[in-house]
């Protein structure tokens, strides 16, 4: 199964060979792991990569329920779904984005940004729908107090744990994709910034057992980012669609306000009222004053940084708009120059008389009427 058109063959394991065939190589690794399920000797090892581990069965009002907690074996599962994400990334790039790029004839810089927004649009759309489904089915939407009540939320349902594992897999896969996609050096620091921020926040929510509030915050963030990248895709197809950025700007500011409000409500107010506020590694209780303040500082700092970047982005857009308007006015002025009054070759008319230009002759000659 080939994901890339090969116009030229390269030496095995050379840099260009790995870049051009990385999806095929990863696909082979996935098949190798799946084949391990077919044999009894390797099935137990292969299942660690495919299925989330650390499950326990408990009795509840719904009957017997299987819950999960985290452990070091989760890294094997994350690695497997990182491979899956690389394959899906190549499929979207080859069969969707490349075909659109050939029709749009974008420049190299716009082509890179178009591919980035296209990939992120697919991810944000799927993750937004998925997270909304989990939030609704888990009852967080109808009972907001469940975001902090009964903390620590050590045991997770399958859909919650699997969601977090796939999120970590996606953002970890974005790091080698910088190499596979040949991202320009000046673009790498910007992309590494938001990759690191996503990994930091998702891992903090997962390891500190703040998965409920983290799930809601991820939904809000993904919806906001989805609006931005959809606006950018429409802008690349037609630059007259810049008004969609105004709609995204309103949603962005609202998302920041809701995020800060929810964090102060859940962590600053809800967890501070809990009875047990002692650090307990075995029970998964991290509800201490220091950890709460650290989490709040991290979220507030990130939201402030995002707002600062947003303000700079809006100011740059405003300056570009003003310069564009000024350029249009100058172009219109050149096309329609102001016409000066017609002057006679000898002088100019004044009250029906021809007056000399140089003022040497004081006599005024009456214009003959025809």
Q: What's the arrangement of secondary structure elements?
A:
Elements: H1 15-35, H2 40-50, E1 55-60, E2 63-68, H3 74-104, H4 108-138, H5 158-180, H6 188-207, H7 211-237, H8 244-270, H9 289-335, E3 347-350, E4 353-356, E5 365-366
Antiparallel strand pairs: 1-2, 3-4, 4-5
Name a few traits of the molecule.
translocation; transmembrane; single chain; Translocating chain-associated membrane protein; protein transport; transport; 5 strands; 370 residues; mainly alpha; disordered C terminus
Brief overview:
The chain is mainly alpha-helical and 370 residues long. The protein has helices spanning 15-35, 40-50, 74-104, 108-138, 158-180, 188-207, 211-237, 244-270, 289-335, and strands at 55-60, 63-68, 347-350, 353-356, 365-366.
What does this structure look like?
Helix 3 crosses helix 4 (108-138), helix 3 crosses helix 5 (158-180) and helix 5 packs antiparallel against helix 6. A three-stranded antiparallel sheet has the order 3-4-5, with no helix packed on it. Strands 1-2 form a two-stranded antiparallel sheet. It folds into two domains: 51-327, no CATH class; 344-370, no CATH class. The protein has helices at residues 15-35, 40-50, 74-104, 108-138, 158-180, 188-207, 211-237, 244-270, 289-335, and strands at residues 55-60, 63-68, 347-350, 353-356, 365-366. It has nine helices and five strands, in the order H-H-E-E-H-H-H-H-H-H-H-E-E-E. It is 64% helix and 6% strand. The longest helix is centred in the last third of the chain and has 47 residues, at 289-335. It starts with 14 loop residues before the first helix and ends with a strand.
């Amino acid at each position: 199964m080939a994901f890339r058109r090969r116009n030229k063959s390269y030496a095995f394991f050379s840099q260009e060979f790995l870049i051009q065939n990385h999806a095929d190589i990863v696909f082979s690794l996935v098949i190798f792991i799946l084949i391990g399920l077919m044999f009894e000797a390797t099935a137990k090892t292969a299942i660690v990569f495919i299925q989330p581990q650390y499950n326990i069965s408990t009795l509840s009002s719904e009957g017997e329920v299987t819950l999960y907690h985290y452990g070091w074996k989760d890294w094997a599962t994350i690695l497997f779904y990182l491979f899956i994400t690389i394959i899906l990334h190549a499929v979207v790039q080859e069969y969707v984005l490349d075909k659109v790029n050939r029709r749009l004839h974008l420049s190299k810089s716009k082509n890179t940004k178009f591919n980035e927004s296209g990939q992120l649009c697919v991810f944000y759309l799927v993750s937004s729908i998925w997270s909304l489904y989990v939030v609704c089915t888990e009852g967080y939407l109808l009972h907001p107090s469940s975001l902090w009540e009964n903390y620590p939320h050590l045991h997770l349902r399958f859909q919650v744990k699997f969601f977090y594992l796939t999120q970590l897999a996606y953002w970890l896969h974005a790091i080698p994709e910088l190499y596979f996609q040949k991202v320009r050096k000046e673009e790498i620091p910007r992309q590494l910034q938001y990759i690191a921020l996503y990994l930091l926040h998702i891992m903090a929510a997962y390891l500190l057992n703040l998965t409920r509030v983290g799930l809601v915050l991820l939904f809000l963030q993904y919806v906001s980012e989805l609006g931005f990248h959809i606006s950018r895709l429409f802008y690349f197809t037609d630059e007259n669609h810049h008004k969609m950025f105004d709609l995204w700007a309103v949603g962005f500011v609202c998302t920041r306000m809701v995020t800060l409000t929810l964090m102060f409500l859940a962590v600053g107010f809800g967890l501070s009222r809990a009875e047990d506020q002692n650090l307990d590694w075995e029970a998964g209780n991290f509800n201490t004053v220091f950890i709460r303040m650290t989490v709040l500082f991290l979220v507030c700092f990130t939201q402030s940084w995002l707002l600062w970047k947003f303000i700079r982005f809006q100011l740059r857009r405003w300056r570009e708009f003003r310069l564009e308007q000024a350029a249009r006015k100058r172009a219109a002025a050149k096309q329609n120059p102001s016409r000066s009054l017609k002057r006679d070759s000898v002088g100019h008319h004044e009250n029906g008389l021809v007056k000399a230009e140089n003022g040497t002759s004081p006599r005024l000659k009456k214009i003959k009427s025809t």
